[in-house]
Structures are given as structure tokens and as C-alpha cells.
Amino acid sequence: MERRWLWLAGTVAAVCVLALLTPGVEPVPACRISEYPCRNNRCVRLDKYCDGNDDCGDNSDEPLYCTVCNRTYYGDLGKTYELNLSKPIEGRLPFLCHLTFTANGHSHGDIVQLIFDAFKVGRYEATELDGCPDGYMQLSELGRPFTGGSWCGSSTGYAVYYSETSTITVSVKLFHSPQSVPFEFHLRYKFVSQLEAVVRFGSPAAPLERGQVSPGTYCTRQFDECRFKPCRLQSPNYPGMYPRNVTCYWSLHQKEVPTCKHAMIAVRQESAHKMQMKRSISMASLNKTNTKALRAWRECTGERDHLIFYDGPSTNDPVLVKYCGGDWLPRVVSHGPWMLVAFHSSPFSIPLHSNTAHSPLRGFELDVDVIFADSDSLDYSRESRRCEFNVNATNADDLWEERGRRGRLLSPRHTLPPNTTCTYKLHGQPGDLVWVYFISYSHRPLLPPPSATEGPDGITLKLGPNTTMSDSCTTRLRIWDGGGHDARIMADHCDDELPRLCDHTSLSNLTRITRPCSPRESYVSTNSKMIIQHHTEDGTALHPASFRLRYEFVDTRLGGDPWTGRRAPETQLAHPHACSRVFRKMRSGEVSSPRNVFMYGRGGSTNLSCVYRLEAGPGEKIRLMIHNVSFGEYPSCETEPDPHTARPRCVPVESGRLAELRVIEVPWREVRIPRACICDNFTLSTANPRPLVFLSSSRYMELHFTLTKMNITEDFRDLYFFATFEMIRMPECPRKQRLRGSGGEVEFVNPPLTRTDMYCEGMPWLVEAHENRSLFLLTWGTFLPLEPSQEDPARCGSKNRVLIYSGRPARLIRVVCPAEPNARQFAVHVFSEEWFGGGGDGESQTTVTYLQPPRPPSFLVECVSREPGIAAFNWLEISRSRSALLQQLQIEYPGYNGNLSLNDTFLPPDWECPYRCPELDACISASLWCDGRPNCPSGYDENEVHCGVGRRFFKIFPGGIYTALSCAAAVIAALLLLGAFGVAHRIRTRRRRRRLGKKKLIAGEIGVVGGVGPRRIPTEEMLLDPGSTMSS
To answer: 0.90 cut: is pTM over it?
Structure first.
């Protein structure tokens, strides 16, 4: 061909030189390269040569035995040319015809366009080794390797081919032409400027990136940095039909990756007119339906063109999908910054055409995107051949931080190869539970389920331990409770079977919050491990299965031991909650609110009540320090100092919700005294970092953490407390301060005067009555309101207070500003609440309904000493007289006329009590009557009228009758002891005399025999004067 070009150029040059040198010959205008020069000096288009018509007028364009073959054709921009090959004569076979088309640049174009209007060349045998046995057409381009592919068979309709270079040669070969096989070859050709080829190259303002052609290859290209450029993978000779027997490799690489990001390459095409690939003859490719068809994997037979996507830079990497035609290409994503796409066309085919195509485009064009994910995210696998994700919360530095303890898992954003199992291993700390709930789950197969029992590569699919994938299951989801050999399967879902969904959480946004996920909508492990396995048999390119789930490691550790003791009276729940704990046999430790999300609003709970009990050992007391508390964004109450005791107390601001932390001391088993209450976020905060410190007066303290009406967003990060404690060596109170009897006196002194007072400082007094008795308490001072105003504390000249509690649980009924004991003008009386039928002092007459027999009345008296001072109280066990009781119960009795007085004489003597205090209208114990001490407030029980003159003798003794009786008892005990000693002495004397007589008899006998006289041994009578008196 090169010789032909040289010969033609030399001939033209010689003609031009002869024309210029020949005298008398006028020069004839030369024809354009795209025209044929006639003998009559006319110029016609090159396609008019040998077309059967006399276009020159002198028939010079139709010479004898002319042919359109073996010629080079040029043309002008904007013009369409036609060529037609006639069927060769049978005797001149084999037939060979070369048609060369050259775009000469500028006005003659840069690219050649061939349009095949009619093509019938030989037969196409798809199943034969030689697909074109009778003849074929081949295309070759200048500067590109010859592929050797062929077109043959019958094709009608629109088929187009665009050259990649400026010169293309069409070779038609026919070996034999049976009569049954017609021959027809008609094409049009055009020359196109590169600026007009916007489909292939893009517009000048926005050019497309088509990659760099690798030298020595037909269509292998390298693509780099598609992040900033619109990269397109185009079939060879796009947008026309691509050559036969061609293999292309397109290497995609993203070199520059932003910090903390991970790059992935994505290839896709959603438009059907850009996915024109050769299809099987057996399929109805010309009769398209409304559904988008896909052909892949098993349907990619040898006679079909196909694309292979590799998850990496080489053909040794896993295959993501093998695609061989369809109306679209789903997105195929590599797991890393490399992807290799291989395209191969079959050696033989019919020219691509379609009578019903909406676009004249042929071939395909794929869009390339670069996807970035966080480098520490769990939505891409780190290795191409393994899909494993480890969510490890064992190294979490702070259990209160969300990072590492709670997160979101997405199905891999990249495409998974066939027969891949993605395993998610969630491992928490000891004591954790794993909580998982799916926000969404979808499985949308783009191909019908395979009928074979093996995967695409003939490998039996295995899922989990000793588990084989079912034949009919292309996608399977399994959840395992645990992580070892003893793991128990919790869920097993195949294809379209949905797991437990908590899909309503996807509706949450900044303005709308959805309810928590229930146990029926989630999965919770029984230990700190869980495994989730998601298996795909055919890969996710054509069987996409995606999911979104949230996981959380639930910390169930509470510290201490479970507290299953008695019901805490101060709590809101009827029974101790699972979070109630007891801390015993510990020198120090930490106490904090539970971190179990299921106990809070976000976990589905509404109320929470936890009791934390601290128990010190013998000879110890508890030092408690509260460091931090929080009660949500909008606490419902405020913490302020109590005006009487300066202790923190809770003052509700809004009714309804309760959120508080109470410090309670337990001096006795069933007695609890409130020490402090915190319910806001300002008492302990960064502005006030000093902790609240409490020192117990007994061995037991309790923290009551109570929350009600929690909203669905609150958890242990919003509602919490943190405290520490230590046991301090300190003697216990040696005094018995739980009293029961007829009456008594108690005195408070600050500062303490004795060691006993020092050891019992802060310890309250508990006064209890017997069955069917009431209590009366006398103290000195003035009553203060329980809820004082700002002026009320100023009315008391002392900062000390006497607090009087009643009932179980202890309820504050009186606050007394103490005065000097025994000052009559400051005497105040307090009765137990049942004395007046409900109100402790007669002010509130409420009816008490008991679900069980009422307990005996009791008073709990506490002295809060904030400055030096003294206070005291007396107490009496009292009861009503029968007449007073009948009057209170409004029961008629004999002689009652409705106006009964205490001095009526018609009542039987036993109707009234013999020992009573008239000012109290109450009966007292007989042991208190005339005991030398006034017990009635008026001293009526020590009146001389009742007690007589002899009582004056007892008043001589300090302490009254009690001192006299004590002295008499001591004298009697001494006399009894002396008498016992004398009797014992006489018995011992008699025994010794008997032993002495026996010894004398034996000694006499010995003395007579041995000649030794008797000798008297000193006895006890000699050492002890019988007339003397012994004292013990």
C-alpha cells in the first residue's frame, strides 16, 4: 500500500510539471482530493466512480471492468457518500475487495464514519469454530494492530462504525456463494471533524477523559486521578460498533487520597442507549420488553462479548462480575483504589444493528466515579480476598464515651466477589451485652436464581461453622450469640427473608425522634460477643444485598453485690430494681449509676429506681463523697440548702417528673433518715468541682437514685451520678439509743462532754411504744414551720434544731428551735399521730387506712447541732382512759348522758385509769407514779396527796425513789453475800476437823511404834480470828 501511495504521488507531480512546461497548453484546474477527475476536465465525487451512472458525461468514470474495490476514498466535511458492492460472479471466487477511507484533516475531516445500510456476506455459524465459513468482512486501521475479527451473516438496519484513526480499510472476502445465501453490501461513509465528535471526546469546554493508550495495543488504556476528571470507559471505536476479536484492558487508579480517607473505584451505566453490546442469537434482542435485562456469569458463553471487572490492578485479583450484555450496568465498586476492567469481543459476529433502537449509538460507555470512605470506617474490607470486620470495645478508654462503644455498621460499599462471606465480630468487655438492630435490609436480585447447586466457579458455598449454603439461597444472613465453638445461632435468614427490623428509627431527624427499638425489633446477646455473617453466592454486583444496622455494647456491670433485701421505702418501685446493689467488706470503692441502656428511656424504660447500700464493718463508719451528678438537659427541680439544717434538699419546680439522688442513713434495720437530696446539675458541676462529703453516724448508708418519666432520648450519659466511699476506723456508739419503756429523759450537748457523746454524735434517738400505747414527747423551745419563709429562721436565736420524725418511713412532723431545758414557758408537747386519730398534734384529722396491722407508734428525734448549745426532751408512754376512748369513738355506755365529765361518780371504778396525767388526759405507767421524778408536765404524778409523807424521804436522795431503791438493793445484796460466806466457812471448818482427827489417830500409832511424840500442825482456826467480819 505504501508503494501505491508513492506511485500516485509521483504520477501527480509529473503531470503537473508537464502541464507547466508544455507551451500553448492552458492549465486545467485540478480536482480536489475528494473528487475524481474526468477526462473532460470535470470533477465528480469519488463515490461516483463505477457506480453504473455516467456522472462525468464522457463515461470516463465508468471504464470497462471497473470496480470500487482496491481504491482509497476521501471526502469533505458535511457530505455523505455511498458505495455498493455487487455480488461477485461464481467463477471469480474467491473474491477479495479492499476499500480504504482516509480523513485528510481540516475540511476533509479527522474521523471516518461508516454506515452499513445492507449487509449480507456469507453465513454466521455461532456454534462453529469458524464462525464465517463462506466469507466475511474485516476492518483494520492505520497505526493499530490488526485484530483478525470478522463480520458475516445477514444484517439489515442501521449499523455504524467510527474509526479511531484517520485511515480505515474495509476488506470483504468471499470464498463461495451458495445460491441460498444472498450477497448484499451497501454502505455510506462520512468524514467527521474531531470537534464535532462530542459523544466520544466531549465538548471543548468539558472534554472527557478517555485515558492514555498503551503503546502497541489496540485499546488498552490507563486512567489516573478520575477524582477531578470525568473519566469514561468507552468501547473501541465508540460510539460505533467495536471490532471483533479485540481485547482491551482499562486500568483505573486513584493515586492521591485525602488524609484519613480510603478511595474506591466505581463503574456504572444506567442508560440503555449507552450499553449496546453483542447479544446471543438465541435471545430476542430485537424485541425488548419494559424490564431491564441483564446477562452475566453463566450466560456469558464463548460467542458473547463480555466485560470482566477485577478487584485490583491485575487479572489475578478476585473477579467482581462477568457482564455480557443488558440494558444497563449496575454499579461495580472495587474495595480499594485499583480496578481493572477487561473487555473481549468474540472473533465472529453480525454487525450490531437494531431496527427499534432509540439511538444510533453502538458500543458502550461506562461512567467512572471515585468514592471516599473514612479510613477507620467499617463499610469496606481491608483485604480483597477476605471480608472480615472486628468491632473491638475491649480497649475503650472511657466507658462513658460513645466512640468505640456504639456505632453503625453498613454493608460493604464495594462489590463483593462471588462466594464471599462478610463476617462482623463484635467483642465487648467482660460484663457487656451486644445490642444490634437493623435499620434497613434489602435484597434485590437482578438475575433469576441459579438452577445449579454450585456457585459461579463450581465451588460449594459454606457459611459458618459446619454449615453448607443451601442450593436455593443466594444470599444469607446469620447472627451468632457468642464467638467460640459454643456459639448459638440467633437468626438465619435467606434471600428475601427479613431480619428483625427497627426501621422506624430511619425516620429520626433533628425535629423528630422516634421511639426506642423493642426486643422484638432487635437482637441482644447473652455475653460480650456476637458474630454477624452475610454471605453472597453470586456476588453483590448483580445480587445487591445491603443493610444498615446499629450496634451498642451494653455495660451491665454494677459493682458490689446484688441487693435483694427489703423494699426501700423511699423508692418509687414496689420491689428493688435489678440495679440495686450492696457494698460490704470493702475498704473503699466507687458507686455510680448503671450504664445499662435498657434501664433508661433510650432503651425502652420509663422509670428507674436504684438503691445502693453501703455497709461498714464493726468499729467503722462510712465517708461518702459525691463527685458528679446529672439529671438531663432540663431538670424538674432545684437543689437548695435546707433553711433548718443547711443540708441539700430537693425543691420541685415542675410537677410530674422525679429525678433525684437521695443520701439516707440507716441507723437501725427498718429506720431510714434522709441526709441529703440532689436533683439539679449545678450543685456538682465544673463551676463547683468540690464534692459533697457525708460522714455516717452508723454503719449503714444508702443512696437512692430515682428517675421517672424518662424520655426516649435519655440514657446514662444524660442521667447519672458518681461517688466514692471509704471506711474509717471509728468506735461505734456504745449507748443504746433505741428506747422502749414507760418513759425517760434525753439530753443533747454540743460540743460533746464525754467520749460516749463524741462517739454517738449525729446518731438519732428512736423512741418506740408498746402495742396499744401512744407516745408523748415534751421538749423545750418553739415550733418552726416545716417550710419556713425567709423571716422564720430569723425568729430562732440558735442555729441548732431538734427534728422530730414519726412513722415508717420516717416523716418529719416537727422542727423545734431548742431552748433551755425545764423552762416552763418554752415547753412544747408532741403526741404520736394516732393520739388524735391521725394528726400528730391535733391539727390534721386525717383517716389512715392500713393494708396491714399498724406498727406501734414511734418518734425519731435528731438534734442538728451547728453551734454550741444544749437541748433535751422527755418522753412518756401514754394511753387513754376508757371513758375518753369511748368518747373519742362516740360509743354510749351505762350512765352516759352526753355531758360526761371526769369527776362523775356513777361510773365503775375500773372504767378510769388509776394513774393519769390530767393535763394530758392520758394514763401513764404505774412504775412512773410517785417515783420521785415528775413525769407529767405539771408534776401531778408526784403530788403529796397521792404519794404521801413518805415520799419526802425519797426526795432526800439525789435521783428520788430510784436512788433509794438502788441503795436498798445494794445493802440486801451485801447481807446475802456475807451470810453465804459464813455458811461456806462453817462447812469447810467441819471438814478439816474430821481430817485432822484421822491424822492424829494415825500419828499416834506411828509414834508408839517409832518412839516419836505427836506434833500439832497449825490450822485455819489459828490464822483466822473467829470473831472478825469479812468483806468482799
So the answer is: no
